[in-house]
Amino acid sequence: MNKMIITCAICGAETTREHNPNLPLTPVELAEATYDAYKAGASIVHLHVRDKEGNATMDVGIFKETMKLIREKCDIVIEVTTGGGVGMSDEERMQVLELKPEMASLDCGTVNFGDDFIVNTLPSMRLYAQKIKDYGVRPTLECFDLSHIYAANMLIKEELVDPPFHYGFVMNVPGGVRYDVETLDFFVRRIPKGSYWTVMGIGGRASLLSHYGALSLNGFIRVGFEDNVYYSKGILAKSNAQLVERAARISIEGGYEIATPQDVRELLKVKKL
Question: Is residue 72 included in any domain, yes or no?
Answer without folding.
Answer: yes
